[in-house]
Write a structure and sequence with these properties.
2 copies of one chain form a homodimer. The first copy, chain A, has 303 residues and is an alpha/beta fold. Chain A is built from 14 helices and 9 strands. The first copy, chain A, has 2 domains: 160 residues, NAD(P)-binding Rossmann-like Domain (Rossmann fold, 3-Layer(aba) Sandwich); 124 residues, N-(1-d-carboxylethyl)-l-norvaline Dehydrogenase, domain 2. The first copy, chain A, has a 6-stranded parallel sheet, sandwiched between helices.
Chain lengths: 303, 303
């Protein structure tokens, strides 16, 4: 690998991936991409990226391949499937999965990549579509420290806070911590805003008071105003958050942990999906509280 | 009342009240105080405040009286008891309760004060002992707007963010929103830190990643480092937070609301108290998660 002009692959051209692959092209890197359909890749192809038919080809042609897809299931077939990344892996090639996915799966990928003479990092992110656009993401990295150093100049183009978290899977574990912290905080903010409305307060005045004290949070500053404006557009979609919370709880259970706040948040979000909010932003959790209030006293364990 | 030299009373010389009354003396105001024992007031008396025997006397001698005591129960007897503030209230005198207390009680105090020709504000605060010391509190005010304007120059000496929240009780309602938001956020942070430890991550690296993304919060930045250092000193004591959450839930119930995240947080804190943590800081909630983890799977509804 010539450190000055690595060939870079990118798979996953959704909201996040489009921005991130764009940063790589803008920095002058030679980018190869593939996607479920060539149409999805049109934007980046027009900016000079080259189309490749299969993930396996990318892994055989590139020095570093980034992936950012939907779920652990997608990651598994992308890496382990026929024509998948691992089947074509060229010795020395580094695979970097930025999907929020299972820590266990990250460990499996890392082992298999090493067996084939390559390497792998798990490098999920926090900061949303805006963080991706502005390259201000927080990127949490698991894997070999030397591989992290190798990927660092590229990750630097996508994020502002790059933190090495430990061996393979540690990036994903850290992302689970992130989602767990958000889940509790989101309940707190939604319940506070619901209380504010029902008690006849002016929620804007409440936000002003709360955002300068011990209740201050990113969620309060960024999502509470959207809640109050009735703006439930994603940001970060409910269905993705549910996926993440399921991974977190599964992983916690494997460690013999209980995280009752996170469990409650997942129950509330699953209920929210039944009301048709899965494509909305996570701030739509507010709606479940109005529903609970309308019903009067309900058995919350069943919610 | 001469607007340039109002006589000011202060009752409640605990951690918060000591700092706040000190700011008033520092600003040159003539302060009168009373407390359960003269010994408790020694510091402020040495700085020139005058001792008065009963709350009723304060209310008859002063233009504005501030109170900051422990619980709604303390507030009730301080205001409505024999020799209480209301019994001695001089027409024109303004009573300002900065205790975190019940919105309903604030309404009762306001009505009774008006009946007697005086006025009342509820003005609970957020920002903790440090905010009190540095006069950077967020102060949430309920009552008549004109009374708020009258108290503003004095409140300005104690806090940085003064927000008028609405009629009597609205300051307390806003404080309930604040505590509700904190309760959910605290569970999130404790569960995230517990997960971090159990998954073998370096919690300091996790904090670094989380504090720059969507999981960022005052609790994460200020209390998670104390949790990780095993520092459970208050800050804000568990027993006071429990008192606040009970008021919040009672008040929510009266409005026909459900706040299941807050309910769960209260259950966890009550369990924590059984383990002897009531005088510790709210960050001690972390301990309950280690306990749950040690026990393996438990019925969290009973926790």
């Amino acid at each position: 690998m010539d450190p000055k002009t690595p060939e870079i692959g990118f798979i996953g051209l959704g909201v996040m991936g489009r921005s991130l692959s764009g940063h790589l092209v803008s920095a002058g890197y030679d980018l190869r991409v593939t996607a479920r359909s060539r149409e999805k890749a049109r934007g980046i192809l027009e900016r000079g990226a080259r189309w490749v038919e299969f993930p396996a080809e990318l892994a055989s042609q590139c020095d570093v391949v980034f992936t950012m897809v939907g779920s652990p299931c997608d990651v598994e077939s992308l890496y382990f499937g026929a024509e998948g990344l691992l089947s074509g892996l060229r010795p020395g090639t580094l695979l970097v999965d930025m999907t929020t996915s299972s820590p266990k799966l990250a460990v499996r990928i890392s082992k298999e990549a090493k067996t084939r003479g390559g390497g792998a990092l798990d490098a999920p992110v926090s900061g949303g579509d805006r963080g991706a656009r502005e390259a201000t993401l927080s990127i949490m990295v698991g894997g070999e420290p030397s591989e992290f150093e190798r990927a660092r100049p590229l990750l630097r183009l996508m994020g502002k806070t790059l933190v090495y978290q430990g061996p393979a899977g540690s990036g994903q574990h850290c992302k689970m911590c992130n989602q767990i912290a958000i889940a509790g905080g989101m309940m707190g903010v939604c319940e506070a805003m619901t209380y504010a409305r029902h008690s006849g307060l002016n929620p804007d005045a409440v936000l002003q008071s709360l955002s300068t004290g011990a209740a201050a949070s990113w969620t309060l500053s960024n999502l509470a105003p959207r809640m109050l404006a009735g703006d439930f557009k994603p940001g970060f979609a409910v269905k993705h958050f549910i996926k993440d919370l399921k991974i977190a709880l599964e992983s916690a259970e494997e460690m013999g942990l209980r995280t009752p706040g996170t469990e409650l948040a997942l129950r509330l979000y699953l209920q929210l999906v039944q009301n048709g909010s899965e494509e909305e932003g996570t701030q739509a959790l507010l709606k479940i509280y109005s529903r609970i209030a309308e019903q009067g006293r309900v058995d919350v364990e069943k919610v």
